[in-house]
Write a structure and sequence with these properties.
single chain, alpha/beta, Rossmann fold, six-stranded parallel β-sheet
């Protein structure tokens, strides 16, 4: 079996984050998948993924043959699609679920979960964080695209990736004020991006506090410089609320400093502890440190597991 010749689908609920995790794995396999988004009728919409017994009328848009050789799926609603396709294909479609499906891993041929999730099993591959689409080529391309903006900033260049309020964490104005005071005295030049979750009040504190400094703050217009900031940075600071941003940063192999926020959860605590254990990240205490580690490549880790399992089954 030549993995690059297989027909593959990606199925998600349409959330960009989960879709990009699947695409990162597909790209690491060297394949170009068909991307589909699913939604469900009741009662599967409410009870998935625990109900089971998927039928053609489970889905708001039909899933029809010819079935793919490989299905990479992620998200709660995609569980129903994965089980349905596995059944209708007579088990010929190799089904992969990215992230914990919250049901038995036996429903799939392979499940890939981050280390901080507790699911384990014979067909479960455990990666470090969140798979992504970041490669050396991605970073080099982004670096070139933003050379005019970022090459004028002398080293060290410090990328600051700011999230915000979530179910588990809170970015308060006091935390933002403290962060601004820490950023202002760093020996380096700042490249900052914030998210929608940062909030207008926090964003204003950031902009006002760093107004008279040599700082680049993306204002949301033009091409997103996110990958370019990762490429140009010597250090990366990331707020504690985002598994994906911390994983992205650790894919570069550069020092990742985690900015503490208010709140926590056992799952995030495990994630932060694992990132520190493998040497990818350290807590940010106002000072920059230099260290090295093996860059994360979770997409390739999962892709290799898929290829090995499919070769073993299909030859």
């Amino acid at each position: 079996m030549n993995i690059k010749d297989i027909k593959a689908w990606i199925i998600t609920e349409g959330m960009i984050g989960t879709q990009n995790q699947c695409l990162g794995v597909a790209e690491a396999l060297g394949i170009t998948p068909i991307v589909k988004q699913v939604s469900l009728h009741q009662p599967w919409k409410t009870l998935t993924p625990w109900l089971g017994f998927e039928q053609s009328f489970t889905f708001t848009e039909p899933l029809t043959p010819p079935w793919p050789d490989l299905l990479i799926a992620s998200g709660r609603k995609a569980v129903a699609a994965s089980r349905y396709i596995k059944k209708k294909s007579g088990g010929k479609t190799f089904t992969v679920q990215i992230q914990d499906p919250k049901c038995s891993s036996k429903n799939f041929d392979l499940v890939a979960v981050p280390h901080h999730d507790t699911l384990r099993g014979a067909n479960v591959v455990v990666n470090h964080g969140a798979p992504n689409r970041i490669t050396s080529t991605t970073l080099e391309t982004a670096r070139s695209e933003f050379e005019i903006q970022f090459s004028v900033l002398p080293s060290p260049r410090i990328a600051v990736l700011i999230g915000g309020n979530s179910r588990t964490h809170k970015l308060t104005p006091d935390i933002m004020l403290n962060l601004v005071s820490q950023l202002k005295v760093l020996n380096g030049h700042l490249m900052i991006t914030a998210s929608r979750r940062t909030g207008d009040e926090n964003l204003k504190i950031l902009q006002d506090g760093l107004r008279d400094t040599n700082t680049f703050i993306w204002d949301g217009t033009g091409k997103n410089p996110y990958h370019a900031m990762l490429a140009w940075a010597d250090h990366i600071l990331v707020t504690a609320d985002s598994v994906s941003m911390i994983s992205d940063a650790a894919t570069t192999g550069k020092p990742v400093h985690i900015i503490p926020l208010e709140g926590h959860s056992p799952r995030f605590d495990r994630f932060h502890a694992h990132m520190q254990k493998i040497g990818a990240a350290r807590p940010f205490n106002g000072n920059l440190q230099n260290w090295s580690y093996e860059p994360l490549n979770d997409a390739k880790m999962v892709a290799d597991a898929i290829e090995q399992a499919m070769q073993k089954r299909y030859g």
